[in-house]
Design a protein that fits this description.
12 helices, two-stranded parallel sheet, elongated, alpha/beta
Length: about 300
């Protein structure tokens, strides 16, 4: 449900700016991201009327681009090897802004001799060296944001110790390549924005083309009555279950829109919504869309 809500706001925010949505399948961990999952998701989005422009882009087909970008960052001195385990840096770092842990920079200044010695006994990951700056941006939904790269974000992984490319690197390369100008995602990822702005700036100084200025929109999270984020792994209702229950795309969209206050409840209670949700299309939601209505960290939903 949270993913669908974010996609609905993605579509609305893009069209509100007279833009359009591009579809990217972030399946960089190809062993876990089975092709049928993407196929099912795309069919469901099309059924709901959540359209996009152009062909779908699959990250597992773009590894050469990520490798080229990483090599550029390494040549420019913006990447360094890290031999810390997750337990190591969690132990050395306090959580920031909730459950977000910040890497303390343990391996930032290793000497060549230390790197060689460690590499004989342990494989390394590669991290991006963030700037020592504060980054400010105005979020379309959450308003002005200011974060310190070293204090609030830390140096993100570029390549994992198993050789896989990271989310942070891949999405920055893809955003440049796809000409993305607006990023919409959950507000739990707001700390990723300064990091990605820094990576994008570094890549623009390397061999990649200049990127367009980005607009960022961090959507509220849908949580249950106790503040727990809804998730399929916890047995919460999936969009497929909603489709089976409500039968039509208009009723599924209407249900999500109603429980998240995108449209008024008009006196309906939980049982009424579960049995007879309102019907709405994305075009109708666009007519009443206002970014200022989404300036909240999370949306408690006591009934699903």
């Amino acid at each position: 449900m949270g993913n669908l809500y974010a996609m609905m706001l993605t579509w609305l925010a893009a069209h509100y700016r007279n833009g359009y949505v591009v579809m990217r399948i972030e399946d960089i961990d190809y062993a876990r991201c089975k092709p049928q999952f993407a196929t099912e998701a795309l069919k469901l989005l099309e059924w709901l009327g959540l359209t996009w422009e152009g062909p779908e882009v699959y990250q597992h087909q773009r590894l050469d681009l990520y490798r080229e970008a990483f090599e550029d960052l390494r040549r420019w001195g913006r990447a360094y090897p890290c031999f810390c385990s997750r337990a190591d840096w969690h132990a050395a770092s306090a959580p920031h802004r909730g459950d977000h842990f910040v890497y303390p920079g343990t391996c930032r200044n290793l000497t060549p001799q230390e790197i060689f010695k460690k590499s004989q006994v342990k494989s390394c990951a590669w991290r991006f060296l963030v700037s020592d700056d504060e980054v400010s941006f105005t979020d379309l939904f959450q308003g002005p944001q200011t974060l310190s790269l070293p204090r609030d974000c830390g140096d993100p992984i570029l390549i994992r110790s198993d050789g896989g490319f990271s989310y942070q690197l891949a999405v920055c390369v893809d955003d440049i390549d796809q000409g993305v100008t607006q990023v919409v995602r959950g507000c739990d990822l707001v700390e990723s924005t300064p990091v990605q702005m820094d990576i994008l700036s570094a890549l623009s100084g390397c061999s990649l083309s200049q990127y367009h200025p980005m607009e960022y929109c961090h959507t509220p999270l849908i949580v249950d009555g106790d503040g727990r984020r809804l998730a399929k792994r916890d047995g919460d209702l999936s969009v497929i279950h909603l489709a089976e229950r409500f039968k039509t795309p208009q009723r599924v969209l209407g249900y999500i829109a109603a429980i998240t206050s995108m449209i008024p409840l008009d006196g309906k209670d939980a049982s009424t919504l579960r049995e007879n949700p309102p019907e709405v299309t994305m075009e109708q939601l666009l007519e009443r869309f206002s970014p200022q209505d989404y300036c909240t960290a999370q949306i408690p939903v006591a009934f699903i």
